[in-house]
Design brief:
Strand content of chain B: 15-25%
Structural class of chain B: alpha+beta
Largest sheet of chain B: 4 strands, mixed
Shape of chain A: globular
Mean pLDDT of chain A: 88
Radius of gyration of chain B: 21 Å
CATH superfamily of chain A: HybD-like
Number of helices of chain A: 5
Structural class of chain A: alpha/beta
Strand order of the largest sheet of chain A: 2-1-3-5-4
Largest sheet of chain A: 5 strands, mixed
Order of helices and strands of chain A: HEHEHEEHEH
Number of helices of chain B: 14
Number of domains of chain A: 1
Helix content of chain A: 25-40%
Order of helices and strands of chain B: EEEHHHHHHEEHEEEHEHHHEEEHHH
Low-confidence stretches of chain B: 420-428
Radius of gyration of chain A: 15 Å
Helix content of chain B: 40-55%
CATH superfamily of chain B: Cytochrome-c3 Hydrogenase, chain B
Low-confidence stretches of chain A: none
Mean pLDDT of chain B: 91
CATH architecture of chain A: 3-Layer(aba) Sandwich
Strand content of chain A: 15-25%
Shape of chain B: globular
Distance between the termini of chain B: 22 Å
Oligomer: heterodimer
CATH architecture of chain B: Orthogonal Bundle
Number of strands of chain B: 12
Chain lengths: 170, 428
């Protein structure tokens, strides 16, 4: 069966609807993960950086210390939703986007370099926050490589969808 | 003949595994296999300026990033005939205290503790011990903050440079560090109490040697020009090759070290065994209360040592922050010569780290980096072999033996990424 390509804005609208379905009434936080020295692996950080200026205090990246940020949000006595954004191998074409709910995050281990997303997600959920991970399939993760066109487009889609959601909560 | 494998050693930095080769019930061999690829950093920096070198070498590791930077700066300053200003020396001490708190809090509470409490991970521990997990994250966050304030960034900060600092912390930031470090002391005391209350299985017990730097001013600390050995000897850091005797083994991308044909330990337990009497404050009281001869044989006590040391680092911060705040910002000292050599020895959270440089016409001609994990690997294998033999002799199940071995390896807080530097792998 022939599959029609998305019209401009369709992917963003679909993603926004999915995020709205997860988000609670309260504040929305974005925590971007990854390594910008490794091309598409830095997708989450680039999304967080793009949202930092319009939403100061609500968008954070690896450079801000995500564990500490997650701890701070967990201790806030407000309703809140936290979206982690990270590059992940979804075994899908580069740029594919998937929203994974906290209960489906399988990463269990912590290394000395970073606390696992699963621990931060559990910590946030234990304090009554809503959590999900927005995953972007990387195409290239070579050291100092350029971000691929597909992932660049997905960074734009995720940024716009989150910005729309955050503006609505503002 | 059968093998008992732990293909991927979890809750350590980097990729490694453990292989136990058994002949019947006899343990023939135990190896810690390093799968992480060679990093080639020492060759990469050849021909670089010292300023570029200190920006490249911290990339070896994002957790000991400041230790690598500090060791490189110390080696390069010696080679270039530079004496850093006093304010730079104190600011460097402060950044090392921050790194120590950041690393030790993560390792003790989130990587090592789950094994002792019977949880598969810190995630699983969260339901029953949320307050302690949060305590660890609070300490880690503060350690990261001190690293950011002193070095300029949370990871790979570029403020510490050869000859001084690009920018010194503001008085306001130093005052905040002073207040917050004081506020977090009860959290660190709790971590010590947790690790002092644990039972440490004796399977790994064996005599070994301990090496650490001899910190200046007869105080406890994280850098020095000489190396203390627990046999009572002391050697110049410039003689690091005689202390480490690096060699290559076929099952690992990391080099190995022996001192006078014997394995040795570096790390928090080595620091406390060699310099524990120099501690002060509550850290000194708790060290006196909990130290025993078992520390000399059982590597699992490195966890308790890290907890006590983290408390000392926090207790020590206000004094150092005050010293830094009281001094005017000096300029960056310049080289007095363009040819020379020097070795910088610092205590990374997981043990002595050496950076040796030979400078020719102002450029790096030779770089030699010896990491703590590379020094510990033979010692880890020795203690793991004993653990496997003793546990199997007691009829322990394979799963129990696997956990016992993982606990021993993890106790050393190995950083496998750091350990895999420039190795020529020979297969025969």
């Amino acid at each position: 069966m022939h599959k029609l390509r998305d019209a401009p804005g369709d992917a963003e609208a679909r993603l926004r609807a999915e995020l709205e379905d997860i988000a609670c009434k309260g504040e929305v936080y974005v925590l971007g993960l990854g390594n910008t020295d490794r091309a598409d692996d830095g997708a989450g950080v680039l999304v967080a950086q793009a949202l930092k200026k319009p939403f100061p205090g609500f968008s954070f990246s690896e450079h801000d210390g995500v564990e500490g940020t997650a701890l701070d949000i967990s201790e806030k006595r407000v309703e809140a939703t936290v979206f982690f954004v990270d590059a992940a191998n979804l075994r899908a074409p580069p740029g594919a986007i998937k929203v994974v709910r906290a209960e489906d995050v399988n990463e269990k281990e912590i290394t000395t370099h970073r606390v696992a997303v699963a621990l931060m997600a559990s910590l946030l959920e234990n304090s009554g926050k809503k959590v999900a991970v927005i995953c972007i399939q990387p195409g290239r993760i070579e050291f100092q490589g350029a971000v691929t066109a597909e992932v660049k487009a997905s960074i734009g889609t995720v940024t716009k969808a989150l910005a729309a959601l955050m503006s609505a909560k503002d | 003949m059968r093998e008992l494998n732990i293909e991927n050693l979890a809750r350590v930095e980097g990729h490694g595994g453990i292989t136990v080769t058994l002949d019947g019930k006899k343990v023939k061999n135990v190896t810690l296999d390093i799968h992480e690829g060679p990093r080639l950093i020492e060759q990469l920096v050849k021909g670089m300026t010292p300023a570029d070198d200190v920006n490249v070498v911290p990339r070896i590791c994002a957790i000991c990033t400041l230790s690598h930077r500090f060791a490189a700066i110390r080696g390069l300053e010696k080679a270039l005939g530079i004496k850093a200003p006093e304010k730079a020396a104190w600011t460097r001490e402060l950044m090392m205290l921050g790194e120590n708190v950041e690393s030790n809090s993560l390792h003790t509470m989130l990587l090592a503790l789950p094994d002792f409490l019977g949880y598969p991970s810190a995630v699983a521990m969260l339901n029953d011990h949320a307050d302690d997990v949060k305590r660890a994250l609070r300490l880690k966050k503060f350690g990261n903050h001190v690293m950011t304030v002193t070095s300029g960034r949370i990871v790979h900060g570029e403020n510490p440079v050869v000859g001084g600092f690009g920018k010194y912390p503001s008085k306001k930031a130093l005052e905040e560090i002073k207040l917050k470090s004081h506020e977090l002391v009860p959290d660190a005391v709790r971590v010590v109490e947790i690790f002092a209350s644990l039972e440490y299985p004796a399977y790994a017990e064996a005599e070994t040697l301990f090496m650490s730097v001899n910190a200046p001013r007869k105080q406890y600390g994280y850098y020095g020009d000489t190396i203390l050995i627990s046999n009572g000897k002391e050697a110049s850091a410039e003689d690091y090759k005689k202390l480490t005797n690096e060699r290559v083994v076929s099952h690992s991308f990391a080099k190995r070290s022996l001192y006078q044909e014997k394995t040795f330990t570096v790390g928090a337990n080595a620091r406390l065994i060699n310099m524990g009497k120099r501690l002060d404050g509550q850290a000194a009281d708790l060290f006196k209360e909990h130290y025993s001869d078992k520390w000399l044989k059982n590597p699992l006590y490195n966890n308790l040592a890290q907890a006590i040391e983290m408390l000392w680092s926090l207790e020590h911060m206000p004094e150092i922050a005050d010293k830094v705040a009281s001094m005017d910002d000096p300029g960056i000292e310049q080289p007095t010569r363009m040819n020379g050599s020097g070795t910088g020895a610092v205590e990374a959270p997981r043990g002595v780290l050496y950076h040796h440089y030979e400078i020719k016409d102002g450029l790096v001609d030779v770089a030699d980096i010896i990491t703590p994990t590379a020094q510990n690997l033979d010692d880890i294998e020795k203690h793991m072999k004993l653990t496997a033999e003793r546990m199997l002799a007691e009829g322990k199940k394979d799963e129990e033996v696997r956990l016992g071995l993982e606990m021993v390896a993890r106790a050393y807080d190995p950083c496998i990424s750091c350990a895999t530097h420039l190795v020529t792998l020979k297969r025969v």
